Amino acid sequence: GSHHGNKVIWVKFDYDKNLIQHLRSYAKVLWSASQKAWYMTDNLTHRNLCGLEPELVGKEVLLKISNTEYVQENTISGICVLKKYDYIN
Predict the structure, then answer these.
(1) How far apart are CA 60 and CA 12, in angstroms?
(2) Contact 39/73 with Cβ under 8 angstroms?
(3) Which of 15, 59, 82, 88 is deepest in the core (most CB within 10 A)?
């Protein structure tokens, strides 16, 4: 998610003082009064802590594209399909 223009991971749960202390022992978490939820910066360490997949950026994204998607993407009709446009041949 995002908060004040920064990428964050939201942590929502019913009030539990012990859980809050436990969470704070592992990460720097802040309370958002506007969202009524705890949050931490979205980074690899916090993603691992929360059991989230790492965010793919740059060349890592290209490694996740299958050959079929790559071929489709490099054709005019494929670009239209991937971008949800109607392609008339």
Answers:
(1) 30
(2) no
(3) 82
Q: What is the total residue count of the chain?
A: 89
0.70 surpassed by pTM? no
Each residue's pLDDT tens digit, 25-68: 999 999 999 999 999 999 999 999 889 888 776 665 666 665 55
Phi, psi for residue 38 in degrees, rounded to 5: -85, 155
Per-residue pLDDT at 69 exceeds 50: no
Alpha helices, DSSP H only, in the chain?
Answer: 17-26, 44-50, 59-63, 67-73, 76-82
Give the integer Cα–Cα distance in Å for 29 and 40: 5
